[in-house]
Amino acid sequence: MNKKTSIISIAMIFVFAVSLLLGGCYKVDESYTAVAPGELPAKKEGFDYEKAGMEPYDEEITITVAAIDYPLETGVKEGTTPRNQSFNDIVKEKLNINLKYVISSTASNYDRDLQLRIGRGDEPDMFYTTSAQTYTSLQNAGRLADLGPSFWYLNEELQDIYLNVMPDVLKNVMAEGKLYSFPMTGNPNESAQKLYVRKDWLEICGIIDIPAQITMDELINIGETFISKGEEIVSQTNVQVSRADQLIPLAFHNEVMWTGTASASGIMQACGASPDAYFLDEQSGELYAGNTSQEMKNALSVMAEMYKKGIIDKQFTTKNVDMVYDDIRSGKVGMVFGQWWLPNGEINNTVNNIAGADWICLDLPSYGGKESLPIVKRVNIQGYNCVSSKCKYPEAAAKIINLFYDIYYNDNAEQIYGEKVKPENGFYYNMVPIKLWDATASVKEYKRVNSVFKNAYDLGVRISYDDNGNLKDGSWKVLTETEIAGLSVAEKEKYQAQLAEYNKLKTREKEQHWKLGYPYYCAVRNGTPVNQMSKTDKKGWGIYRCMIADDCGYDQVTRLTEGSLKARHDEFYGSSLTTMEAYSGYLSNTLSKEVYMQIITGQKDISYFDTYVKDYAKNGGDSIIRQINLWYQAHKPSGN
Amino acid sequence: MSNTNNAFAAQPLDGNSLSRKPKFKITSKTKTQLIMWGMMLPSFVLALIFNIVPLFGLIIAFQKYEVGAGIWKSQFVDVYNFTRLFNRPDFGRVLFNTVYIAIWKIALTTVLSIITALLLNEMVTNRGKKIVQTIIFLPYFLSWALIGAVFVDMFGIDGAVNALLGTKIDFLASNTYFRPIIILTDVWKNIGYQAVVFLAAVTTIDPSLYEAAEVDGANRWQKCWHITLPCIKSMIILICVLNIGNIMNAGFEQILVMYNPIVYETGDILDTLSYREAMVTGSDYSLSTAIGLFRGVINCILFAIAYKIAHKVNGYKIF
After folding, report:
1. What ipTM was predicted for this assembly?
2. Rounded to a whole number, what is the distance in Å from the CA of B290 to chain A's nearest CA?
3. Which pLDDT score, from 0 to 100, does residue B10 have?
4. Which residues neighbour A137 within 8 Å (Cβ) at sequence distance 6 or greater?
5. Cβ-defined contact of B282 to A121 (cutoff 8 Å)
6. Is A590 on the interface with B (CB under 8 A)?
7. Any CB–CB contact under 8 A between A112 and chain B?
8. Which of A519, B154, B286, B291 is positioned for an S-S bond with A537, CB 3.0–4.6 A?
């Protein structure tokens, strides 16, 4: 080594040592300073916001946007992409806005592409992000436009949701009277879980008259019976397995920190636990972490017992959600937890493709002698509609949102906006770059559909199709003027009453609920068993179990929303906190995941949970909960 | 500068000097050199764009990078991300897994591919040699996304391996079996490629050496030991040096497809950790970049050491 090299080496070591010392000086900011949301700016005197909210610009303006290129749903015109969707033409025609897509990525790449663009200071004028971290970071950097003055451009329904139905949502994106986003809201109760069980398996096992809520011990007994009667299940159902031990009494996937459908979250919720949630301790008035709670320990203990007995899928550690869906489709799965919409997905597939397959829907099993409550977020912010501070027309965001809302929820959209609002002409709601849902719409829809179906049935409306999709004789249908003219006075009166009931449904409900669900509803009311229904009538099973039956998934959501059913709440709904950014990567995505799975599979005893709790606290968990409690004291939602 | 001026001043300013032709002349050698440089230019530009310029992004490793603030305005935190990485409770095992898996992969692949190349070289029929060569080379072209899924199925409880052994073991959820499976499947995939490289080196050996050895009564083993191996020594060293410089790359795609949280203990490597931090957890690009930089520096150091050793032991030089 020559002299010059030595000097360079020594200099580098010195710089590195100094950097290490300086690096030790940096500390994660664990404080939390609440910024008062303030009040929205007052409306301009004499300005017609309602008119302005849908008024076109005098001269064409160009707005750059980002959108997710989702896979197309059935019925949407083939080849539709964000860039060529018909919504762009409607925006151009009605608002004189030219939407220019600078990002059009698949769902898995969207966040990355958006962040890359933001990182180089070239974000679109308007975009949607589900990442609280991205939103917070942009707000802190002063790169988001103040949407306060634009708020009043939103239509009255949306203003009402923000101001009266979910006021905490708006406060969360406001600081000192400035509004930084139109947050996407949803009914938080829609994430409540239900237990779905194969009815035909239960019948084969001789288990009948099962109550709406069973206990955890009963659930385990059912699982054990499915195992012991496996040979009979295989021989009597069209399941695609060669041996009885390939049946899966209870299925879930390996994302144990995920709270969605077909996850371990169902059993966790039944035991009062939920991953990455923060619950209120009534006595101390402080929040505690769901990950390290006694409830989570109980849930893991139950799952370990079930795994040992062979009730939980032995291979769940290597299965993702799609693999679980494959198992459900092939008829191997006896029980699965999921949200209200699950029957209209993979489960519906089994009913329609496997002869004799049927499912029942139960509430979460009770545990330890206590009633099990679904766990939902106190305040549900699904994402953020943001406008860049560089955008010259921030109010255009409200106009675009209003336009989408009017197309999606207006029953006369086709008359107003023409054929372009039809999916077959390239309108796909998922690809609209910025939008807001009516978080209260589905409850209204559920009630309306139920009322119409009951009344229509009482008025004698019966509909049934044959296997080929042809209407059977005697089925009710909308008559032509000539046909009506041929009716007797009494028949005409009866028909008019039936039609009036039918017309209470919105166009979309006529297409989905009525067309698919009503024949199934009639068959159920007529007492026809599923296996005796025509293939076409049976197709309505999914929508019936989701949105029509008395014990359907949405019935639970409605009861939770109206308060007749209690829920346990995850209290934290804030944006990303500094301690979470620093520590949750290891705590949630490595430590918790690994320990939970090791305990469930028996590789570690449940007593190891106590060691995990200490490790969790030591490696940042304590800091997170301290900061979350500071946040909670400043943002206690109304009602607490 | 003044010297230059003086030099100019020293030139006699007369008519002859002004009409003199410039000294610079494109000789045929310069012309060849220019052509060579021209041919190298596209690669150089590509390397500059895709390898050199992005190095600037490493600055993120020393920042608390925030998307909103961007690379220019994010707060500098010195080596905080490195201390955070080194203080992570799982850092030790991740580093160990990376090195352990990589060393086994490199050692097994190199040794087995040399043996395969020698065996292939000994095959009498050319057709048989080509068939075997093609078969073992084929897996190299398959992506881990595809064959990873096949292996996940094969090693599952209801998979082919359990059916063959008559067992009920979830191999990919076992910390005992996960690493050996990762190593062996990677060796299976890559052995063909390296064997072909060694075979190419073997075919360049002068046949007269073998003929002379035969005259001296050498058997096959002796010919292999005393002629073939010494002749392909430089290729073996080159492959080893290159592999050692890759020791912190334990096979990201393969492990990402085949691992799951229960085998983090034996299967989590620096690359998968980096991926989780940047893409899964919540965009911790700073920590992820720090992991990448750490890995790169270690690779660089190991490469330099291996190269130095190769140079000292064998007088071998790449550069």
Report:
1. 0.82
2. 13
3. 46
4. B66, B67, B68, B69
5. no
6. yes
7. yes
8. A519
Tell which of B150, B182, B262 to mutate to test the A interface (max A CBs under 10 Å). B262
Chain B neighbors of A138, CB-CB under 8 A? 67-68
Tokens 């083939």, residue located: A78
Other C-beta atoms closer than 10 Å to the C-beta of B268 total 21
Question: In angstroms, rounded to a whole number, what is the distance separating the alpha carbons of residues A373 and A192?
Answer: 9
Q: By 3-state DSSP, what share of chain A in percent is helix, strand and coil, each rounded to 5?
A: 50, 10, 40
- Number of Cβ within 10 Å of residue A455's Cβ equals 16
CA proximity to A77, closest of A432, A424, A418: A424
Structure confidence at residue B1 (pLDDT): 38
pLDDT at position A11, please?
Answer: 67
Residues of chain A neighbouring B90 (CB-CB closer than 8 A): 586, 590-591
Residue range A77-92: mean pLDDT, rounded: 96
CA distances to A282, A531, A627, B32, B75 from A144, rounded to whole Å, are 38, 57, 25, 57, 19
Structure-token match 């009861």, residue found: A559
Question: What pLDDT, in 10s, does the model give residues A375-414?
Answer: 999 988 999 999 999 999 999 999 999 999 999 998 889 9
Q: Which two tokens stand for residue A288?
A: 């505690």
Q: Could you tell me the pLDDT band of residue B6, with boundaries at 50, 70 and 90?
A: very low
| Residue B269, both tokens | 């490597």
B262 and A315: CB-CB below 8 Å? no
Average pLDDT for residues A158-179, to the nearest whole number?
A: 91
Tens of pLDDT, residue by residue over A297-328, are 999 999 999 999 999 999 999 999 999 999 99
Of B79, B260, B265, the CB nearest to A318: B260
Edge-first strand listing for the sheet containing A333-338: A248-251, A333-338, A194-198, A359-362
Contact A424, A75 (CB under 8 A): yes
Structure tokens at A152: 């009043």
Pairing between strand A278-281 and A286-289?
antiparallel
**Looking at beta carbons, which residues of chain B come within 8 Å of A111?**
283
Tokens, residue A528: 């026809």
Residues in chain B within 8 Å Cβ distance of A276: none
pTM given for the model = 0.86
Beta-carbon pairs below 8 A across chains A and B:
127
Establish if A611 touches chain B: CB-CB under 8 angstroms. Answer: no
Q: What is the pLDDT of residue B2?
A: 41
List the beta bridge partners of residue A66.
A103
- Residue B278, pLDDT > 80, answer yes
Name the residue in chain B with its Cα closest to that of A20. Answer: B79
